[in-house]
Write a structure and sequence with these properties.
heterodimer; A: alpha+beta; D-Maltodextrin-Binding Protein, domain 2; 8-stranded mixed sheet; 18 helices; 8 strands; B: mainly alpha; MetI-like fold; 14 helices; 2 strands
Chain lengths: 420, 319
């Protein structure tokens, strides 16, 4: 009996070893990032000894929910995980990822090669480098040049200050009937980001104290309310069917978004409006980002060494970064890629404008701000407070005071949880 | 020989005694793993603080802190207010419409009954996601059919003065969102309640209706004084289901508001807030506390509804 068992084990052992060696490297990602990873296969396999890549793709929100579950249960963890910038705060303070600043990674050595704000956001308050950025989304003001021309408004004049922006909106509406923005919330979102000082948190400071009663939010709420009172916004939420139609029909003159928005407009949102859109820097010299993607290695990943090699290929390889930019509008986080000729090329959809140069300049100027795990809920608290101001005519002071209390209560609950 | 026969009889009687348990075992195992264990885990979690991103080892006992946080949370109370509003606005009309509708179908329709009942029942068996997506198109401010209808009616002389000429911002305003959700929920469940009451009406002996007819009772009197009192057990059952379903309302508002509760959280129900607290805000302890508080509320209201509507025990009253 015993002899038979040994014989069977001996026969199966090579199979087990072989299976372990050929186990593919698993990467969990979401749409667009998955396509970039799949396109990286030929480059990855230039080294014949590496295993195949298994890209597990889920919808954007489902992916992050699945990753939280995987981390919580320590099961089905990928070797490499893509994290969208808005979810970074949720993960950056946890101890679930490898500290990429430590050996054998020594990720801090690559810091200067990335857009400064993007790299800084992946470092938690204890100095741990949790992820490395692969793409970023410098913000821009996309505007309908035909509407601006009909209204006799020069974009340089309209973007001089926020007040000038609203004045331009009044003129555009008067002469073309188009709204300036789809929703006053967009104005608030940009203003709270543009008013950031480097190192300052978006909603909470480094000690976890709420910043919602700071002048930054007061100003943003005041201008958003003014915009609504002047009926300069269409009161349409982004990504709704009304919003899509407004972009197609030219009933909204501007949209502030990340650089990727040009690709979305051209490919599916409003392809028939080709040549009518342009890109300009955000009003009042503001700089802000809309999204971005990071790669992180889970602490309990099976194949960390190879995951790091793939991470380096995806983030530090100029050729890969440019390929992703060309195919998926994934603006490179790697500064080495910024000298590529692709940046200077005119964009047909934007009437031949070389807008990538403008976005490149913005990427360098976006202030770095630390992310916090309460950022998503803080954003919702602020949005709800603004809704009460815009819809129920609540006073800004009272709405921000209550929002501040809500956020402080959440922050107090977290204070017992030490960040890793 | 006798001993071995005794042994086999003993074994057989034991296996006979175990047979019911063996038949029960598949259900019990599935229930314990997927029903009882999660309930127990949720109860345990209500007294722990846990951020899933920190891993299983990060759970910490915090006593009643999650309940204290929830009971002093403005968003919890707002979600509860929304839930009660929606439960009443969508629940009460379901029964007010379903009862006479079922009576009408039962007394008047003959050959077309199955078709009519089927038509009313279709929304109940249709995917909630499909319903909500279709509703989003119907309720669209600029391009929706409902606003098209309102705009058309608004041109009429008298009734038009009562309607907004530009249509209603159903999903983009706090005032329009709740009625929109209530309409969808009402439309979805009115058919179910109609079938429920129709089945109950079919159990009422025809002789009672015939006798009342001979006594000179009109159609309305027969509905009010005969059908309604005799339908009381079915009404108790229907209302109980509506209370439970109304207070656990999740799918319709979740899809219609894009999962965020809509403007100023006007469409965020307690079940939605519980889900979001756990899976978006990563506060599993508070989410568990919300679920148990909601359970207590559902239980209390169901008992209250039962006591209010329970059938009168005529025998005990006469004795």
């Amino acid at each position: 009996m015993r002899r038979r068992t040994f014989l069977l084990a001996g026969m199966l052992a090579p199979l087990w070893v072989g299976a372990a060696a050929s186990r593919p490297l698993t990467i969990a990602a979401f749409p667009s990032v998955d396509a970039i990873l799949k396109a990286a296969r030929p480059r990855w396999h230039r080294n014949p000894s590496v295993p195949d890549l298994s890209v597990i793709s889920r919808e954007y929100v489902d992916h992050h929910t699945a990753m939280v579950t995987a981390i919580a249960t320590r099961s089905h963890l990928p070797d490499l995980m893509a994290i969208e910038a808005s979810f970074l705060g949720r993960f950056v303070g946890s101890g679930a990822f490898e500290d990429l600043s430590k050996p054998p990674y020594n990720g801090q050595a690559y810091r200067e090669r990335f857009a400064p704000y993007a790299f800084a956001q992946a470092i938690n308050r204890h100095g741990k480098l949790v992820a490395i950025p692969t793409d970023i989304a410098p913000g821009a003001l996309f505007y309908r040049s035909d509407l601006f021309e009909r209204a006799g408004v020069a974009v340089s004049e309209a973007t001089r200050t926020w007040e000038a922006f609203l004045d331009a909106g009044s003129r555009i509406q008067e002469r073309t009937g188009a709204h300036l923005l789809s929703h006053a919330r967009d104005l608030k979102d940009v203003m709270v980001r543009c008013g950031l000082r480097s190192g300052e948190g978006l909603y909470l400071d480094r000690q976890g104290r709420s910043l919602l009663q700071s002048p930054r939010f007061q100003m943003a709420f005041t201008l958003a309310r003014e915009m609504r009172r002047k009926k300069l916004d269409a009161n349409i939420s982004a990504w709704s069917s009304e919003w899509t139609e407004s972009l197609r029909r030219g009933t909204v003159a501007t949209q502030m978004m990340g650089s990727w928005f040009a690709g979305h407009l051209a490919n599916w949102l409003a392809p028939k409006t080709a040549g009518q859109w342009r890109s300009a820097p955000l009003p009042a010299g503001g700089q802000a980002a809309w999204g971005g993607t990071y790669y992180a290695i889970p602490r309990d990943a099976m194949n960390k060494a190879l995951a790091w090699e793939l991470l380096k290929l995806m983030t530090l390889d100029r050729e890969m970064q440019i390929a992703a930019f060309r195919s998926q509008d994934a603006f490179p986080a790697l500064r080495d890629a910024y000298s590529d000729g692709f940046f200077e090329q005119p964009i047909a959809f934007l009437g031949g404008q070389a807008a990538r140069v403008q976005w490149r300049n913005s990427a360098a100027a976006i202030p770095a701000f630390p992310v916090h795990k309460l950022d998503p809920i803080a954003a919702e608290i602020v949005d709800t407070a603004l809704d009460e101001v815009l819809i129920d005519n609540r006073s800004i002071d009272s709405a921000l005071k209550e929002a501040n209390e809500l956020l402080e209560r959440r922050a107090a609950r977290l204070s017992d949880f030490p960040e890793h | 020989m006798n001993r071995s026969r005794e042994k086999s009889v003993l074994v057989r009687s034991r296996s006979m005694a175990a047979t019911p348990y063996l038949f029960l075992a598949p259900f019990m195992v599935i229930f314990l793993v997927f029903g009882f264990a999660p309930i127990l885990f949720s109860l345990m979690m209500a007294f722990l603080q846990w951020d899933p991103v920190e891993g299983l080892g990060a759970m910490r006992f915090v006593g009643l802190s999650n309940f204290d946080f929830t009971l002093h949370d403005a968003w919890f109370w707002k979600s509860l207010g929304n839930t009660l509003w929606l439960a009443i606005a969508s629940g009460v009309p379901q029964h007010v419409v379903a009862l006479p509708l079922a009576y009408f179908i039962h007394r008047v329709l003959r050959r077309s009954r199955s078709v009519v009942v089927g038509a009313y029942f279709v929304p109940y068996i249709t995917s909630t996601v499909a319903i909500a997506i279709m509703s989003m198109a119907l309720f669209s401010t600029d391009y929706g059919l409902i606003n098209e209808l309102i705009r058309a009616v608004a041109r009429w002389p008298v009734i038009g003065a009562l309607l907004p000429p530009a249509g209603i911002d159903w999903l983009g305003s706090a005032q329009g969102l709740k009625p929109a959700i209530a309409i969808v929920v009402f439309w979805r469940f009115v058919g179910f309640n109609t079938v429920l009451y129709l089945a109950a009406l079919q159990g009422i002996p025809e002789e009672i209706f015939e006798a009342s007819y001979l006594d000179g009772a009109g159609s309305g009197q027969r509905f009010w004084f005969i059908a309604l009192p005799l339908l009381r057990p079915a009404i108790v059952f229907g209302v109980t289901l509506s209370v439970i379903g109304g207070l656990q309302l999740f799918e319709e508002p979740f899809i219609l508001t894009g999962g965020h509760g809509g403007p100023a959280h006007a469409g965020m129900t307690t079940a939605m807030y519980m889900y979001r607290t756990a899976f978006e805000f990563n506060d599993v302890g508070a989410a568990s506390a919300i679920s148990w508080l909601l359970f207590l509320l559902v239980g209390t209201l169901v008992i209250g509804a039962y006591r209010w509507l329970k059938p009168v025990d005529t025998e005990s009253r006469s004795s």
